Amino acid sequence: MILTFLKVVDNLEAAAKPVVRSRWDDAMKPFDVVALLEDVPDKGLLRGQVGTMVETLALEVFEVEFCDNDGKTYASVPLPGKSILVLHYEPAQIG
User: Fold this and answer.
1) What is the per-residue burial (b if ≥16 Cβ within 10 Å, else e) of 57-82?
2) How far is CA 93 from the centre of its chain?
């Protein structure tokens, strides 16, 4: 399942077109579910791990919390916007 998720992330990255925004946090909101696009070895986090954006710390820097299946936080890390991908669970509204 994790390998499938990583393939999806690879496909999304490959298909993504650059988006010009004045601020990353215009699109990121607290409680957005995000996935890591790169390993964070010093925190024991691997590419593809899923967390929750809990706070905007600075322009393009977000605090992301990672929890286990019981809801216990095992890492809370400041991350640049370029290293996370917001996950969407519903289709985009067109028009």
Assistant:
1) eeebebbbebeeeeeeeeeebebebe
2) 21
> Other CB atoms closer than 10 Å to residue 32's CB: what's the count?
17
List, for residues 8-61, the tens digit of each pLDDT value: 445 555 544 443 333 444 578 999 999 999 999 999 999 999 999 999 999 999
Question: For residues 88 and 70, what is the distance between their CA atoms, to the nearest angstrom?
Answer: 22
Quick check: pTM over 0.85? no
Q: Cα–Cα distances in Å, from 9 out to 4, 61, 73?
A: 9, 21, 24
Which domains occur in the chain, in start order? 2-86 (2.30.30)
Between CA 83 and CA 94 the distance in angstroms is 27
DSSP helix/strand/coil, 93: coil
The pLDDT of residue 90 is above 70: yes
